[in-house]
Amino acid sequence: MFVFVCAGCGAELTASLSRVALPVHAHQYFGNGLQLPVLMESGTFAVEPEPWGPPWRPWDEIGPEEAAARGIYAPVDVLSDGAPGAIVVAPGDMRGTVLIPGKRGGACCGLAGADGPNMACAECGLPVASRIDDCSYWQAVWLAPDAVCRLPADGCDAAPLTWAELMAQGRGTPPFEPITGWGSPLGSDLRWSWSPQWTAAAGNALAHLVVASQGRLVTVPRGLPEEVFQRTLDTLLPAGPPTRRAVLAGPGLSAFDADADIVLVPLHPQTGETWTPADPADPADPATPAYPVPLPFGMWFQLVVPEPRLPVPTSGLMAADALRDDPPIPRPRDVFRADVEAFRRTLARLPAVRSPWLREIARIPLQDLYARLV
After folding, report:
1. pLDDT tens digits for 313-335?
2. What CA dihedral angle connects 203, 271, 136 and 188, to 10 degrees?
3. DSSP code of 156?
4. Could you identify which of 1, 11, 90, 151 might form a hypothetical disulfide with 155, taking C-beta atoms 3.0 to 4.6 angstroms apart as the criterion?
């Protein structure tokens, strides 16, 4: 467990926190005027390894050489010149801070943090963090890495859950969730939508799937995986044989399918590690291993176990006039749309994007790419 303190005076700024993996949707902007929940679970923090936040530099000022040194291999609109290592926590875990008047960051409904830290240490006044709670952003507080220090706290972290324990918990991320407009009275503007977490994770996974395709059409398992990935893959990749086959793999499932070209595998929610089989293939085997495409564990689990587990065995048919107290979750009316920005961000950071055919995809203008993916 750790606590973050002010680098200027040593005052405590957070509750005791344990580290988890940075959510794939940490920097997501979803919809227009929508109210998103808190990004981080209470009692946890995550670290952004890349520079993030102002000042921002356009691509014309950076160039491919400097970008490649930072692990970015295709043009992007802007890059941050902020300090790497920003720490994100839940707003409710902050202590001893005050908002800086006038630092809204160009927000329309709340705080956006676009003009630098908007929270200061209550003891010495040092700007230490940026509160983000504007519409269509995940609510979070980003601690400036050069303004805080991390110290051990009382208590100790439990060992990360094993894959078997994660499977036993059965905590999937539902693909649909209710979302309301910013400032609307509770329930007055409520609608069911595809989960923002799923759209961001799908955008990230699609970048890996396109790279793994080697320029050929990719097929994914029938059902929810097909609904989430197949339409976009058919749009971005050339039609016709030969095709590459993607399958689900991970804890509780059989080992990698010997005939699969691509495997959709989970990321550990605490460590961020990608699942690998306990008995990997023989290193002497000349066969090319399947390309692993990472998915957040909650999304992967929902793809593997799409229906809630019943508490007791059942049989037979339910009477037509039976009144259920567990109605099915309403489905959104629109088709699934992957997050375009997440797709572009991930693709630009994969070295394979330097190949000519992938570079052509990376160069598609944002609006054109959005039109193709929706």
Report:
1. 556 676 766 666 666 667 787 88
2. 110
3. -
4. 1
